[in-house]
Design a protein that fits this description.
Blueprint (H helix, E strand, L loop, with lengths): L2 H6 L12 E2 L6 E2 L108
Antiparallel strand pairs: 1-2
């Protein structure tokens, strides 16, 4: 039987293989305490399953919130420096590294544009300032 089939029969004693138990809110056998629905030592959260994106990640080590020092890509985070402040290399929403050339306009660090590169002459300068082209006449 597959792991899914084992726990679909939870009411039958001994449904998981030796050393495993059923997750409390997901039809799957688990080999660790993460997913049993009880907060254990070393866990930040335990919502009874081993799924990402529901407020507690699959390892029970992240509550999937910006500012917890864990990059939760499932929530669109690209950085997480343990706080929710701007101007420190990771934006307050954890969705930008606040670096020129990353394709995200970070106005709080002085960017007026960010075209995803650090090349001047393309409308957005190497330091993410707008470039104004002046057309001359002959």
């Amino acid at each position: 039987m597959s792991e899914l089939a084992w726990c679909a029969l939870r009411e039958t004693p001994g449904v998981c293989p030796t050393g495993q138990k059923c997750a409390s809110n997901q039809d799957i056998c688990i080999t660790t305490d993460c997913g049993d629905g009880t907060l254990q030592a070393g866990e930040v959260c335990d919502d009874g399953n081993v799924l990402d994106g529901d407020g507690c990640n699959r390892t029970c080590m992240s509550n999937e919130r910006c500012g917890n020092a864990i990059v939760d890509a499932v929530n669109g985070e690209v950085c997480d420096d343990g706080n929710t402040m701007d101007l420190d290399g990771c934006s307050a929403d954890c969705k930008s590294s606040e670096l020129c050339g990353n394709g995200i306009v970070d106005q709080k660090v002085g960017e007026a544009c960010d075209d995803g590169n650090t090349t001047s002459g393309d409308g957005c300068s190497k330091d993410c300032k707008l470039e104004i082209s002046v057309s001359g006449s002959r």
